[in-house]
Each structure stands twice: as structure tokens, then as C-alpha cells.
Amino acid sequence: MANVFGATSTTDEVLSGVKLHGNRILVTGVSAGIGVETARSLAARGAHVVGAARDLTKAEKATAQIPKDAAANGGQFELIQLDLADLKSVRTCAGELAAKNEPFDLVIANAGVMATPFGHTADGFETQFGTNHLGHFVFVNRIAPLMRTGSRLINLASSGHRFSNVDLEDPNFERTPYEPFVAYGRSKTANILFSVAFDERHRQRGVRAAAVHPGGIYTELGRHMAPGQIEAMIEQMNKQLAEEGKPPFQPKTIPQGAATSVWAGVVAPAEDVGGKYCENCHVGHVVADDFVISAISEGVRGYALDSANAAALWKKSEEMVGESF
Fold first, then answer.
1. What gap in Å lies between CA 66 and CA 88, rounded to an integer?
2. Most buried residue, 6, 15, 124, 186, by most Cβ within 10 Å?
3. Whole domain around residue 251: which residue ranges?
């Protein structure tokens, strides 16, 4: 590849010179932050972007500029309603898309929640696992027939996957004491494993999947955290970095945070990213399970890329949602 991108690359830098006219792209979570920037950057390159959001009123305000940018560059933008914490909404939305029978070149499963208080989705699943993983699992699998040859699925994961592997024996914390970041870790590991399994199932027909860690960014995602919690985590990280002789943590901007999503979705060769975990606009390397957890250090746990683990999660997910794919 002629251009080498990294942690500070922005969406506009990654997509410089890229033309997406004729491409149809679906992005979930377009009511704030990375989802809005991802949709904007793609629509501004001529793509027809379908943005999904739970709260359409909020999404309309957040994306007000996107239709104008899209129209100025030959693109289009539209909104659809999707509540990933309610499988009835998920199935309705997927059904409406299937009825239109308009194919997609890229699906970016961007929506998610983080470190929520203990709770359940409309279907009784633990909030983070149910929203971040199971909602997307059903939605993406139901629209998979719309993904044409050469298309890609990008699942938004996180370095937070290193907090925990999935727990297929107790996914809803019925026997395990609930810890918000353990639950978040399980859901983000599930996002990566879903990419691995989806890639294995669809690569033969030319459809690939990858997981993406956007980096450390200040967005609405941290709204459930206690006052001062983020600051305390950053202070701990900076202490760690100082001990390693490294400069203090610098959060990414939102355009930098969305860059890896669009890089993995349209710029990087499919063979390079298929079935992989990507961060800072490159494919991440595997780190040991005892590697020190830090939101800014790079690397992916081996359990998150394990094919057998991915197959077991797929089977458990089908059992939980009562649907086979």
C-alpha cells in the first residue's frame, strides 16, 4: 500500500482520493461520536449511507450536516430505526431492509454501550452482551444475504476485550458478581469472535469480516461511568507509561477514532484484514493473556481470535436468541 496510516490518521486522510459512488454502506449507532463521523466521511465520498439509530430524533440532529455533504459529493444519506437492545426492533429493521432487497458493500456495526449499571435488554439478556453482541449478531446475520460479493463487515470492538474472555456458562451474570468493565470486556471479546466466525462462514463467497478498536476517545460512550472514574483510569495509565519512559496518554479526536473503521472497511486489502483485529489503521498483533491491561497499549488476546471459541460463541448465541444462521 502506498500510504501508511497510524494512530493519528483521520478519516479524511485515510479516505483521501477514495471514491465510493455506487457503494451502499450501513452504519449502526449514528446518533453520536464515531458513528456520525464514520457516516459523514463515507457519504462525503459519494457513498449511499444508511444510518441506523435507536433514537431517530437525536440522530436527525446529530447528522443534520451529512445529507448536505453527501449531496455535494454525489452521495446519499438516510436514517432507519434500530434498537439493538430489543430483538423485536432488530428483526423488524432487518426485515424492512430485506424487503427492499438493496445490496450492501459494507456494514459497520458501530453502535454500543459501555460500563452500564447491571440491567437487562428487552429480551432478558445482560445489557452490554445483549446490546453490543446479540443485537448485532441477529441483525447482521439477517441482512447477510444483502451483502454482495466483495463486501465487508466491520465490528467495533475495543482494547477493553482484554478485561475478559466470554463466559458461555454464565453470559447474563446469573452466578457471577457483576462488574461493569468485565461485562464490557465480555461483549467486546464477543464482537471480535463474531468477526472471526462470520469471516469463516462467508469468505468463500467473497464476503469478509474484521474487528476494529477505535482507540481512546472522549465520546458519549463513557456516560455511565462514575464522576472522576475516567480521570482516575487515565492517571493510572499515565503512571504506567511514565514507568515505561513513555509520554502521557493523548486521547484521539473523533475523526482519528473513526479512521480505523473506514480503513478496514474500504482501504485495506480484504485479505489482510479478514478475520483479524485492527487498531490504529493496521492489523493488531496477539499479546499474552497476562499482558498488562491498558486502554492505549496495542494488541489482541489470543482467545478473541480463537476459531473454536468463535464457533462456541456462535452456537451459544443462536441458543440465546432462538434462531439459527
1. 28
2. 186
3. 11-320
**179: domain CATH number?**
3.40.50.720
Query: Does residue 75 fall inside a structural domain?
Result: yes
In the chain, alpha helices (H):
11-14, 33-43, 56-62, 66-72, 87-100, 127-128, 136-143, 180-202, 229-243, 254-257, 259-262, 270-273, 307-321
Look at the chain and report how many structural domains it folds into.
1
What is the maximum span of the chain, computed from C-alpha positions, in angstroms?
A: 57
Instruction: Give the cell for residue 280.
Output: 490504529
**What is the chain's Cα-based Rg?**
18
The answer to whether residue 169 sits within a structural domain is yes
Residue 292 counted as domain residue: yes
Q: Is residue 2 part of a domain?
A: no
Q: List the catalytic residue out of 178, 184, 218, 303.
A: 178
Q: Is the dihedral of CA 31, 34, 38, 40 positive or negative?
A: positive
- Write down the pTM of the prediction: 0.92
Per-residue model confidence as pLDDT tens digits over 86-126 = 999 999 999 999 999 999 999 999 999 999 999 999 999 99
